[in-house]
Amino acid sequence: MSCFFILGSWESDIPISKATAFNYTPYAAGNFIAPGEIATLPFLLASVRYSYGPHHPRKGLFSKQLPNAWNSRMSVAIQYDNYCARVTGAILGGVGTWVQMGMKSYIAVQIGVVGVGALLHLTFWKQLKAKTG
């Protein structure tokens, strides 16, 4: 969830912060973002082409813990989690960045979210039936 939260917040932050810092129009801010998007496209296509049976790692780990009847419900719950993280991240990036929070507080919130995620990951990793080694 933290990855989608941070991704959503930076996606909505870049046009706002560049408009403030460099006096960009929304169109110019989009042109600022576009080369980075184009540069990552070959990596995305290669990843999809050369991966064998791509699946979501969290879905794979959760499906081993629950009965088969809950597999589809867990998949829907994971997707809702991802969407909620993207939306709340976009709200944080759009409202809080340069307008009200300031960049230091903005980055502190994101580091806090990553810290909580890392703590939960370290705490619960042993209980998940994950393949190791």
TrEMBL record:
The keyword Transmembrane helix applies. Keywords: Membrane, Transmembrane, Transmembrane helix. It comes from the Eukaryota. The chain crosses the membrane at residues 83-101, 107-125. This is Uncharacterized protein.
